[in-house]
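Hey, resending since the last one bounced:
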Amino acid sequence: MDYIEIQGDRVPAIGFGTWQLAGDAAREGVRHALELGYRHIDTAQAYGNEAEVGRAIKESGVARDEVFITTKLRREELAGDRVGPVTDESLRRLDSGYIDLLLIHWPSEEVPLKVTLDAMVEQQEAGKVRHIGVSNFRTSLLNEAMAHTRIFTDQVPYQPGRTQRGLCEVARTEDVLLTAYSPLRGRGVADETIEAIAAEHGKTAAQVVLRWLVQQPNVSPIPRSANPDHRAANLDIFDFSLTDDDMARIHALAEPT
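The structure tokens again:
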């Protein structure tokens, strides 16, 4: 597993997403991912699988301090007096003494951003949370969040055909991680350009897409798969590199025609 450094901490270059994985599928999927070598597991209160993630980590035998766990606060739980109690609930379900990265899952129009972030900072100061981040924040809202406290990541959809230039620029200049969710979804992934690049490298289109993401500064994809073979293939992206021309051709899929 390769790592990238963000704000002085080492983060796995690729993570395992658990959205839409439930019950035994979630537990077995996470355990298998850890056996393969994944060390970043992404979950959320809204996914309903934190307990399965926690059990899988215990069953895997991988030391807790080797696993980077991300979870997210529900939009309905962003009030200042709710952040602490629901964080404790996540800790109990995950069976962990701390969360590596706690995110605001979606922006709220009802609770002021500063109120939620201040409450999250209290959890950080109490040692329950190592890093604070956001998800589904546009550039302007990310900048607002950063004006209140140190933001570790913005988790957003990012795949070929979709531009995230503004957020990528903020990530580079402010040393913030851009976590790319749903990296293998969208019409751009199936573009013939990617198929051609994959053939040149002897890799699959999915592997080329994930490699394109990890080669960008401060970008980390978190693909989710219920298929064990796909989980293994998604991790097998560190034995080749894309050329500058390859990268430019994939970026151009998001250019206006």
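The longest strand covers residues 129-135.

Sorry for the duplicate.
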